[in-house]
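**User:** Here is a favour to ask of a fellow structure person. Please take any protein you like and set down a full record of it. No explanation is needed for now; the record alone will do.

**Assistant:**
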Amino acid sequence: MASVRFTVTPTKAEDLPGLSDTSPDISSRSGARVRFGSRESVNRSDPLSEVSGGGTAGGGGDTPEHSSVDQGDGNSKISSVYINNTHGVDDDDFYDRNLALFEEEMDTRPKVSSLLNRLANYTNLTQGAKEHEEAESIGEKKKASKSPQMGTFMGVYLPCLQNIFGVILFLRLTWVVGNAGVLQGLCIVFVCCCCTMLTAISMSAIATNGVVPAGGAYFMISRSLGPEFGGAVGLCFYLGTTFAGAMYILGAIEILLMYIAPKAAIFESKHPEGEGAAMLNNMRVYGSICLLLMSLLVFVGVKYVNKLASIFLACVIVSIVSIYVGALVSAFKPPQFPVCMLGNRTISGHEIDDNKSPALVNETTSIWKLFCDGPELNASCDKYFNSNNFSEIAGIPGLASGVISENLWSAYLSKGDVVEKGSLESSVDAHPASTHQPYVFADITTSFTLLVGIFFPSVTGIMAGSNRSGDLKDAQRSIPIGTILAILTTSIVYLTSVVLFGACIEGVVLRDKFGDSVKGNLVVGTLAWPSPWVIVIGSFFSTCGAGLQSLTGAPRLLQAIAKDNIIPFLRVFGHGKANGEPTWALLLTALIAELGILIASLDLVAPILTMFFLMCYLFVNLACGLQTLLRTPNWRPRFSYYHWTLSFLGMTICLALMFISSWYYAIVAMVIAGMIYKYIEYHGAEKEWGDGIRGLSLSAARYALLRLEEGPPHTKNWRPQVLVLLKLDEDAHVKSPRLLTFASQLKAGKGLTIVGTVVSGNFLQSYGEALAAEQTLKHLMDKERVKGFCQCIVAQKPREGISHMIQSSGLGGMKPNTVVMGWPHAWRQSEDPQSWKTFINTVRVTTAAHLALLVPKNISLFPSNSEPCTEGYIDVWWIVHDGGMLMLLPFLLRQHKVWRKCGMRIFTVAQMEDNSIQMKKDLATFLYHLRIEAEVEVVEMHDSDISAYTYERTLMMEQRSQMLRQMRLSKSDREREVSLALIVDHSNVRRMHTAVKLNEVIVNKSHDARLVLLNMPGPPRNPDGDENYMEFLEVLTEGLERVLLVRGGGSEVITIYS
């Protein structure tokens, strides 16, 4: 019977709907595969498992039960993320014949055709689109769900235009031109437009460097600069977008209450001083109502917002066209908006009766009463009123009037100043105007920096296209073209508007923020053709539309951040309705926007969102510049018109604008971003997105390592780069975790730490065990708060593994220079001599490698990080000089809280021929120059005869080692061993004598010390004496609670020079 071949491709278990627990040919054994002519199991839950099988060469090697899969209820068709197996049997035959050589690695290295097929079928879905599809599939008609396919014009260009042309153009641009003048106004507009254009170029490069899902700016920054920067800037951008919504709503309410329906005001003031406060309260009430209505509209469905968007955009375009037409018409027929002046001071048009011009009648008017004590002609009047005449000037002189020459220069005002026309005559003996008089007053103090902060929101909105990246047919093409065209269009409109306003409108009217001088008309509306109402109605609807866009975009941005799960407390905002609409995020957005509405002043809200947007743009530029400079292999943008200098210029302009517009707001915004950054760093979920900061770290590390390679470190730069050797027991637990605790206490030197262990066995079989060991070390390092790296080596013999680790650890100038290892516990009682032989071999290897060696003895008695020593001494026994390690180690230990309160004592040994008094003076001077505070004592060791105790200890040692040796030797070798034993006996006695004498002195002086550091003698050259060497070290440290044996690496580690 011909066999049927099958291929199970790698995918996740939850993606296999038909893979039931009762499938007969699939078991849970991991890592197995079906090979030719054999039946083995496949792992059902392992994403990297596969079954690829077939018959023998003849085609009849398999029985039917071996080569078929039970289809069950017909749902067990398996789909793959890599391999599309909808081809017929012929394709599988072809695959088996031509790629059989690669079949065992097909789980990790899929066929190229399969990978390409998968990529070709990729759909760029919006956030929540999957849930949206599932919700729709439940419906009665079960229509096939379609991902929104929007082009450049509808998807990017028009939304950007609508968001950029906002409330500032209609309500504040004339006022900005009036205060700053045409030249400074052009400068403000040009700098802001340059900032957004440079940002758009950087954003285009990032957006075309791969697929950008929903989330837009947040996604781009987080994937370029990492989750910390991404989260911080993403939240700043979210707050900026939310406050923008509040600003647009405030603008709409200002238009409504000032120009459309002034009588709709709920709060009114009888006194001029209270008018401002009453207006703010009206803004709060109506703004809150408007926000509620808009939020409900967004909640009902984004499709309604998108349907209204085209209407709102039409309003914007009609309004702007009417301004241009009005400016051209004014050259031939200027509109009639007379402005009443007293001397050079502007009179509010609300107070003037059209039927009675005060300059032409002989009876008193309502204005007379405001300047004089009564209506009589002989009443006492204001001094300025008496000495100046009323006059009437044209509010809109027109394009051909030449008024631009007066409007070129700035005319900044302080709060409470009267709006004046400098070219008109006026008496100089005037006292400051009273607020009860009908002048037009400046409501806030203006300056160049303030105007930058107020104007900048009118160029924001460039991210509108990238925020819709999930809805675009081809985001990589649409975002750059649409955004840059939108910025060019709006920049031209703004720059020409500044010139047109300066050329057509009288200066006092430009500086009149609310149009009081022209009877409460919207200033920009006075220029419009055919009627001011075109602008008033158009601007009202356009600001409402921009507010709706902000309330639509901001919750989606928050949802994208929440779904990434990098900020734990935002997790709830990732959920929404069944179709993916961000309900909870919309609620939070509405609450934050309400805070902006409670501020109630457009001029106070604008600088806040300026900061947040500038912060976002700054990091977009940084991300692009960084990626370009680092030349990351993955950095291949399809948009090629970018350069790192442009990105850094954009970044500089953003930073400058932040501090120019409001330095204290800038600091607050940076503090908020910094706090979010640190929060994500410490509490956020760890994400690996291949971000630019990681690339920057790699480049910086490479540069630093290459610099370190240039030469050996100077003595002043020496710091302990520690390799900690840990041993694991049979259950993969660390035997002496206090070794790592001790290493962490040494880390005041801020050097490198590598924690290593050796796993016995064959690497091919023990790889999993090595990974488990590495995880164990990482957990212990986290617990002890040790910053460093862990390394696990698999070797047949532990001593070989340790040797390999010492040779290969580190990289370049960041190689370990100090090895920390534990003392072989109970080595005398151990039946297996390998433990202490491995120890001695490690001592020899570290010596050969010129590394320092630290061996803590009785490590279990060393204090933990939570047990600080409240008193006592760290005693240093400086017997031989080997680079100054003995001086440096206590100093480093005392930087740690555990040892901080311990004093330091240094003992050195004087022989009979030494001058101990002079030695003490020299040692004190040496320590003074080293800037180390310590008590100094010189211990004299007199020559004495070798005691009987020494002979006895030596004899016991010899007998034990000889007995062990003879157990391992043949009969002929034993006879020769007897004669050799007599030769080495005398040298052993001398060594034992030294150990016993030193031990007596050390125990006598340092029995109460918290820690004793002493030189560790080197192992014998002849390996036969290894066991004796261990005995000497035991005798040397007998009776001491905590001992640190120190062996220098042969180089100086401490110096007296600065």
About this structure: The CA atoms of residues 181 and 410 lie 4 Å apart.
